[in-house]
Design goal:
- This protein is mainly β.
- The protein contains 1 helix and 11 strands, in the order H-E-E-E-E-E-E-E-E-E-E-E.
- Strands 3, 4, 5, 6, 7, 8, 9, 10 and 11 form a 9-stranded antiparallel sheet that branches.
- The longest helix has 13 residues.
- The model has no long low-confidence stretch (mean pLDDT 88).
Length: 156
């Protein structure tokens, strides 16, 4: 189960494309990647066996599940000018979790890896790396650090 979830997350997050999926209402900046400790939104390709493939907005969210937590994923069609609605109900990716936390690495002024943050505050750019920490009742899973192949020096 751990390997399957890790492989899915590495493929999906690592394939983030930086395609705009909306506009930030406050700043007017395009939304290309949005994330906090409990959810993230980004566009990546889905496999061809899923709704003919192509780019879709991926939404990963941590939700309450009885006395624990679960990690859900939805895929949404891109629609100009609005945040797309879910194509189908969220799919649970993993259940019976005690903790799930996402983190986002910044770049320092000199271009070296910067500190990890709980919130990605550059919605018009991709983070260079995303960290995923998961713990279930048996203990912590191996920490995942995923490099986003399309993130450049400015995060795009």
């Amino acid at each position: 189960r751990i390997r399957a979830v890790a492989a899915f997350l590495r493929e999906r997050i690592g394939g983030a494309q930086g395609i705009a999926f909306g506009l930030d209402a406050g700043s007017g900046r395009t939304l290309r990647f949005s994330g906090n400790a409990r959810a993230m939104w980004f566009v990546a390709e889905v496999p061809a066996y899923f709704d003919r493939g192509g780019p879709r907005l991926h939404v990963l969210q941590v939700r309450r599940d009885g006395g624990g937590q679960r990690l859900d994923v939805d895929f949404r069609r891109l629609q100009p000018g609005q945040i797309p609605a879910a194509m189908q109900p969220s799919e649970p990716l993993a259940r019976g979790l005690v903790e799930v936390a996402f983190g986002y690495r910044t770049l320092a002024q000199d271009g070296r890896p910067g500190p990890w943050r709980e919130t990605w505050d550059q919605p018009d750019a991709l983070p260079p790396q995303v960290r995923v920490r998961i713990r279930d009742a048996q203990g912590p899973w191996p920490e995942m650090v995923v490099a986003l192949a399309r993130a450049g020096g400015d995060g795009r």
